[in-house]
Write a structure and sequence with these properties.
single chain, 77 residues, 4 helices, 0% strand, elongated
Amino acid sequence: MTLALKTPFRSSSRDTAPSWKYAFPRAEELIGEYVTTLSDDVIRELLLEAVERDAVLRDKLLFAARTASAALSTCRH
């Protein structure tokens, strides 16, 4: 029998990392504010680094890229 702990650092069934939103309630707001100060090149670099570590993010971006590529090739013909 497994007991689920009700703590701010409990992990979901999909991910074993602690939820940063519970640990740092203002983190999303602070990150959002910080990101608005970054240049496009820096954001692109951070995103590509994140894609190397996060399979879900990589799959989302890959799907979007393929969709955009297909739409462009359709418009050209």
